[in-house]
Amino acid sequence: MSSYSAPLADIRFALYDVLGVEPLFATLGYADASRDIIDAVLEEAARFTGTVLAPLNSVGDEIGCTFDTGSHDVTTPPGFRQAYSQFVEGGWTGLTAAPELGGQGMPHTLGVPLNEMINAANLAWGNFPLLSHGAIEALKHHGEAWQQDVFLKPLIEGRWTGTMCLTEPHCGTDLGLLKTRAEPNSDGSYAITGTKIFITAGEHDLTDNIVHLVLAKLPDAPPGAKGISLFVTPKFKVARDGNVGERNALHCGSIEHKMGIKGSVTCVMNFDGAQGYLVGQPHKGLQAMFTMMNTARLGVGLQGIGLSERAYQNALRYARERLQSRSLSGPKFPDKPADPIIVHPDVRRMLLTVKALTEGSRLLALHAGTLIDVAQRGADPQQRADAETLVSFLTPISKACQTEWGVENTYHALQCFGGHGYIREHGMEQLSRDARITTLYEGTTGIQALDLMGRKTAATQAAGLKLFLAEIETFAKANDGDAALAEFIKPLRDKASEWAMLTRDILERASKNPEEIGAASYDYAFYSGYVVLAYWWSRSVAAANASSQSEDFKRAKRETARFYFARILPRTLAHAAIIRTGAAPLLALDEALFGA
């Protein structure tokens, strides 16, 4: 069975030494976010996830959720409900929410390591509270005052959970095709009718009520995506004064039987004239939807990091214990019948790949957290706007790369176990199965790549990229005279320059042929991700050298960074070469000839 212990040393290094969150939080007015408070939160989060959630991970996978076809009720795996009650009692659901709404008022950044720990300990369980945050953000930014008064506090306190009801059987990414309709009622509410699929936590036994945020079309809606509206539609009716009434006209029709995350329920939801309330303006539901979606996408990226961390811990332990053959350069442990497999170069390749991608991704995720805090509380309007632009640019990179790297990392970790990785007892095959979904929900990798290349680059004249390139150059200039960083600064600058050039080339070709955006997007996303991590590994070495960390810690950061630059960053060469081929190789074959 796999185990998990939160990597507090690396999380603290990232927060304090690399990102410098203590002075940042003070500048942003987070008076209570001192180091001792942050450390206490991290310690308690590590205890809860390690002792309460982690032991339930295999239980959720083996037993899963059950569906009663008569009552349409869903029962979560044994222990899940009790764990959720402890989570709520501990105040975790409101860690980063405003105190006036029942939250603790901590920085958004502090929610990032909490969610990483949850995902590493028990990804399936973590899906139940995950989407509540997106519902909170949508209502906070787009809901009417009474909707905020009635729905936000129970969501923040964890007494209710939230969902996102977007996808329909015939309609995935192209939401303009959705058929769910909203008919106005005489009391100002709407009757919501339609079927939604793939609804995470659409029905469960953890809370008394579930708040569904549902995309639907009004009778006078214009065609396509411009006709979408958003409605808050609770499982039990909620009046404008907050009183909870009878069961609403909605139910779970069935639950999906899945490859992984079996402890997380994925529902078909049927709305049969359910009472709902319009959120925001009519036909402006996409704006509110993206508020939810972007929050969820960053959250799913953290799932990739959490799975990677747990996979690494178990593969490292196994590699140190498993005896197999001798080192090619002679026995390293002559007192044993064979050497542990960690002496073999290929095992080290796999372990170092997981370590480098995971620790680099952690910094990318925490950086996004700091940007959200700055965007919300920065004193300077331009600073807030730049932070919003940059986190918007980094969101599809985070979601696409961190989840795909999660698949790669769980694969490498399973390989370290050999045949033992393929059997259930060690828990590695569950991590591999669970990782697959992270690349699919909240927008597939291809959708993230299109979002990055289209909305976040072409449509903004590369505004986010320019901000990130400026950050790289600022760091490079500040360390130009540091001999210890020279081996990282030059290749980082070279990649940043190529990144800008590739972007210009794609956009120039796209001005003549729009298909160039789609043709380049996948490779552009990963080229971007590898350069972003090169920046964070360069900063990690600089921060480690300047810190009071032990010499062993500093050496581990330095050597892992060298491995990253030597063995992983060169992947950009292939991505750049593919980008330069353009759209022609993808479009030359006629559709009819695909089966030839």
CATH architecture type of the domain at 8-142: Orthogonal Bundle
Mind describing the biggest β-sheet?
A: 7 strands, mixed
- Straight-line N-to-C gap: 47 Å
Q: Output the number of helix runs.
A: 18
Strand runs, count: 11
Percent range for helical residues?
A: 55-70%
* CATH topology annotation of the domain at 8-142: Butyryl-Coa Dehydrogenase, subunit A, domain 1
Apparent shape? globular
Q: At the fourth CATH level, what is the homologous superfamily of the domain at 8-142?
A: Acyl-CoA dehydrogenase/oxidase, N-terminal domain
pLDDT averaged residue by residue: 96
Secondary structural class: alpha+beta
The CATH C-level name of the domain at 8-142 is Mainly Alpha
Walkthrough of the structure:
The structure is a single chain. This protein is α+β, with helices and mostly antiparallel strands. Among the domains are: 135 residues, Acyl-CoA dehydrogenase/oxidase, N-terminal domain (Butyryl-Coa Dehydrogenase, subunit A, domain 1); 132 residues, Beta Barrel (Butyryl-CoA Dehydrogenase, subunit A, domain 2), CATH 2.40.110.20; 135 residues, no CATH class. Helix content is 57%, strand content 11%. The chain contains 18 helices and 11 strands. Strands 3, 4, 5, 6, 7, 10 and 11 form a 7-stranded mixed beta sheet that branches. It has a two-stranded antiparallel ribbon with strand order 1-2. Strand 4 and strand 5 form a beta hairpin. The model has no long low-confidence stretch (mean pLDDT 96).
